[in-house]
Write a structure and sequence with these properties.
Pfam families: ABC_tran, BPD_transp_2. GO terms for molecular function: ATP binding. Residues 12-245, 258-495 form the ABC transporter domain. The chain crosses the membrane at residues 522-540, 546-565, 577-597, 603-623, 630-653, 673-694, 725-748, 754-773, 780-799, 805-824. With 832 residues, this protein is α/β, with parallel strands linked by helices. It folds into 3 domains: 12-97 and 163-242, Rossmann fold (3-Layer(aba) Sandwich); 262-498, P-loop containing nucleotide triphosphate hydrolases (Rossmann fold, 3-Layer(aba) Sandwich), CATH 3.40.50; 516-831, Orthogonal Bundle (ABC transporter involved in vitamin B12 uptake, BtuC), CATH 1.10.3470. Helix content is 51%, strand content 16%. It has 32 helices and 26 strands. The strands form 7 sheets. Strands 6-7-8-3-9-10 form a 6-stranded mixed beta sheet, sandwiched between helices. Strands 16-19-20-13-21-22 form a 6-stranded mixed beta sheet, with helices on both faces. A 4-stranded antiparallel beta sheet has the order 2-1-4-5, with helices on one face. A hairpin with a 2-residue loop joins β11 and β12 (274-282). α16 packs across α17 (484-501). It is globular and about 95 Å long. The two termini are 39 Å apart.
């Protein structure tokens, strides 16, 4: 590959890098030089240390020893933020995307504003950026609704937009189709033409030949060799990668005879993404499903597994089958093992045995001895490299993780094995082992259906290949017809047909605007507004005094206190935490005020009281944040501890009601304009301001990024710990504002008055549509949620309902909010 920059100074230099994790040495004295204008391939088996080394190079992993230099200048400590400033960008094997944010917001978090200014519209710039990498997503699409390939292209787009000095690509083509891979290669060529140094991690030898200038091989955390690509053949590379001769990439085929029984017959199957698809599979056969990514083959496979709704006829062993029976009879291996297949916090044993637990149980109790024996046997048979079956599954390499998924499938005793991209992100040695396992499974009488975007893989593994395009079966290849050339030509022919058929109708996306609104952050706000209006109209129809100026003013005043405290709760929940101490904190602040803000208080005393209240509020938030982020406490444990402590202090200071607040101060705080309290106007202004900050400022985007996906946010340079601690501090300060209003309403120091605000604030946040998992929510929604709670409490009085109804309705509201939100998330995930 020609290079425009001729220099001997490496753009990136790693020297003597060593990294250990406990007793495991991930890297040992590794050195690597990457020159400007060149593509340096990095090869090695899963677990060889490639991703760890690139973590060091991109600042997300700190080495135990070693030197890092950029453009000849040594960098003492390289962090993710510093790497970005130095011009190092990385496309991770598992995309560092923020699922709860839109495509546009993901780009804004990752790309400095200055790089998006080209004299035109920023959104037009982002749309053009996505097109250059082959992405078809829209800027307003939420990322958790994207497929694996589109998430990867978004990751590539963010890196390309930075125009880095060093671009690290970690398995970038694993989820991509042929056309998308070509567009990626074109971006790599453009990058090197302007002098960018590219590190290209891959398991695919053919890609190394096409794109790389130099190649370095890692094995067991050490460098095994570096060479110009033109000076080394594939056999020599394979020997360095796996440390031995590899007899063959693919096992010998043993296709079934013509009279082999037909196990699976599919006729006229239709569903989301595919239509009128038919195929059959005989005993002992491996059938591949080919096509450009996104043409329905993966959705068709999920339908065969019984995981999505479909119409048509599926026959297994001569009998029609559907629904739960189909799920039980098949074993499905998804393309994204981390998101769909693995229980990442559990062990190898727990992951492998989960589908077979009913068969390993007696009277509903799992026999641990049988479970361990079954998993041990399967782990040995599949040659899973693990210290123990009780090892955390995430401690294994990618290839061994995939074998664990395969072990689970086989332990379930399926009648048919369904695998979507079974070797995605798997090294060459493990890939050959997986091919052999799948061939052995087929030979044992269990047919195998495989989806793969790699035509070479389909040629070497499959006895028959069915080609999909635009959700339809457009061709079938059998026996000697199954070649890479035939598969590719059939796919290309189908693509031509697809392009000819596409038109304005196909591009319109009718109805999508309403669907996007329903999935957006403001859908709950719209629903809440309608409910508030409906409840108001119903209550007014039964009691006309409901809209009397005095009642309106009273409700809005009560709402204001709850709104401020609830907005504080929103800030914390946006990070994925929760603050149970806000109610007692509000009560303590009122108690403190009752010692100072009394009749006859001087201006100095009033200022001192406010300063003390602010300091206590901020210190409370700071303590919560430190306990959660640095003390190892969960948010519930930390804030519940402070809940008890604050309430104890309040009762110690004011065992009984005492310390009446100055009427002059309460009159000032409760002042109105007409029937509308000024405090309510202030609450609305603060809510709007926080909402704008949440969407438009680095603080707001960082807050949502941390809650959406903490690891991705950290990789993108967001200061995660600071964001969490600051969220608790801001919550405390907003609670201070709510406490001022509460103080004016009750007019006396009372240690018990604030406690109920903890549950009410959480209810308001959930009603407003925020995710208790973090990353998603709205301050406008929280304000409306608080308004609905206060309206319900008020309406029960005008409808002559008892106080017990107030608690009933509050509980009902939070249950409905949680149920609606959960169902919406489930539907969104099913759609992806």
């Amino acid at each position: 590959m020609p290079a425009t920059t001729r220099t001997t100074t490496p753009a990136l230099s790693l020297a003597g890098v060593t990294k250990t994790y406990g007793a495991v040495r991930a890297l040992t004295d590794v050195s690597l030089d990457v020159l400007p204008g060149r593509v340096h391939a990095l090869l090695g088996e899963n677990g060889a240390g490639k991703s760890t080394l690139m973590g060091v190079a991109s600042g997300s992993v700190q080495p135990d020893h070693g030197d890092i230099s950029v453009d000849g200048e040594q960098v003492p400590v390289l962090t993710a933020d510093a790497a970005t400033r130095l011009g190092i960008a990385i496309v991770h094997q598992h995309p560092a995307v923020l699922p709860d944010m839109t495509v546009a917001e993901n780009i804004r978090v990752a790309v400095p504003a200055g790089r998006m200014s080209t004299g035109g519209s920023t959104r037009a710039w982002m749309a053009d950026l996505l097109r250059t990498v082959g992405s078809t997503v829209r800027l307003h699409d939420r990322v958790d609704g994207l497929g694996v390939a589109q998430k990867q292209l978004l990751e590539v787009a963010k890196a390309v937009a930075l125009e880095p000095k060093v671009l690290i690509l970690d398995e970038p083509t694993a989820p991509l189709g042929a056309d998308q891979t070509e567009m990626l290669f074109e971006q790599v060529r453009k990058a090197t033409a302007r002098g960018c140094a590219v590190v290209y991690i891959t398991h695919r030898m053919a890609e190394v030949r096409r794109i790389a200038d130099e190649v370095t091989v890692l094995r067991d955390g050490s460098v095994r060799g570096t060479s110009r690509v033109a000076d080394i053949d594939d056999d020599a590379l394979l020997r360095m990668i796996i440390g031995r001769e590899l007899a063959a990439a693919f096992p010998a085929k043993h296709p079934p005879s013509d009279d082999a029984p037909e196990v699976l017959d599919v006729t006229g199957l239709s569903g989301e993404g595919f239509h009128d698809a038919s195929m059959s599979v005989r005993r002992g056969e491996i059938v591949g499903l080919a096509g450009i990514v996104g043409n329905g083959q993966s959705e068709f496979l999920r339908a065969l597994a019984g995981l999505v709704r479909s119409t048509g006829r599926i026959t297994l062993d001569g009998r029609p089958i559907a629904g739960r029976a189909l799920v039980d009879a098949t074993a499905y291996m998804p393309a994204d093992r981390h998101a769909e297949a693995l229980m990442t916090t559990m062990s190898v044993r727990e992951n492998a045995a989960v589908s077979a637990l009913p068969a390993l149980a007696t009277a509903g109790v799992v026999d641990r001895v049988r479970e361990r024996a079954a998993v041990d046997e399967e782990v040995r048979r599949l040659a899973v490299k693990t210290a123990s079956i009780d090892t955390d599954v995430m401690a294994l390499s990618g290839g061994n993780q995939q074998k664990v998924v395969l072990a689970r499938a086989l332990l379930a005793g399926p009648k048919i094995l369904l695998a979507d991209e079974p070797t995605q992100g798997v090294d060459v040695g493990a890939r050959a082992e997986i091919y052999q396992i799948m061939r052995d499974v087929a030979a044992s009488g269990v047919p195998v259906v495989v989806v793969s975007s790699d035509a070479k893989e389909l040629e070497g593994l499959c006895d028959r290949v069915v080609v999909f395009s635009r959700g339809h079966v457009v061709g079938e290849l059998d026996g000697d017809e199954v070649t890479e050339e035939n598969i590719t030509s059939t796919v290309v022919g189908a693509v031509t047909l697809r392009r000819q058929e596409s038109g304005p109708a196909a591009e319109s996306g009718g109805g999508s605007r309403l669907r996007r609104l329903a999935k957006g952050d403001y859908a709950p706000s719209v629903v809440l507004a309608l409910v508030i209006l409906a409840l108001g109209a119903y209550t007014f129809a039964h009691n006309t005094r409901y809209l009397a100026p005095f009642n309106v003013s009273s409700v809005l005043a009560l709402l204001s206190a709850l709104a401020f405290i609830s907005m504080g709760q929103t800030v914390v929940i946006m990070t994925g935490g929760i603050d149970l101490s806000l109610g007692p904190l509000a009560g303590l602040l009122v108690v403190i005020a009752s010692f100072f803000l009394v009749d006859g208080a001087t201006a100095g005393t009033i200022v001192l009281a406010l300063v003390i209240m602010i300091v206590v509020a901020a210190a409370s938030g700071l303590l919560n944040g430190v306990l959660v982020r640095y003390g190892g406490f969960t948010s519930v444990a930390a804030t519940l501890t402070l809940y008890i402590g604050l309430q104890g202090v309040s009762l110690l200071l004011r065992p009984f009601q005492a310390g009446f607040i100055s009427t002059g101060i309460t009159d000032l705080i409760t002042a109105t304009t007409g029937s509308v309290p000024l405090a309510f106007i202030a609450a609305v202004v603060v809510a709007v301001g926080l909402e704008l900050a949440l969407r438009l400022t680095p603080w707001g985007r960082g807050l949502r990024a941390v809650g959406s996906h903490e690891d991705s946010a950290r990789r993108l340079g967001v200061k995660v710990n600071r964001a969490h601690v600051l969220a608790y501090v801001v919550a405390g300060l907003l609670t201070f504002l709510g406490a001022l209003l509460l103080m004016a309403q009750i007019g006396v120091g009372d240690a018990t008055q604030g406690v109920s605000y903890t549950l009410s604030s959480i209810t308001a946040v959930v009603l407003g549509g925020a995710s208790l998992l973090g990353g998603r929510g709205s301050f406008i929604g929280t304000l409306l949620g608080a308004a609905l709670i206060q309206q319900v409490l008020n309406a029960t009085t005008f409808l002559d309902l008892g106080q017990s109804w107030q608690y009933f309705f509050q509980g009902f509201l939070i249950l409905v909010a949680a149920a609606v939100y959960t169902q919406a998330r489930l539907r969104s995930r099913r759609a992806t």
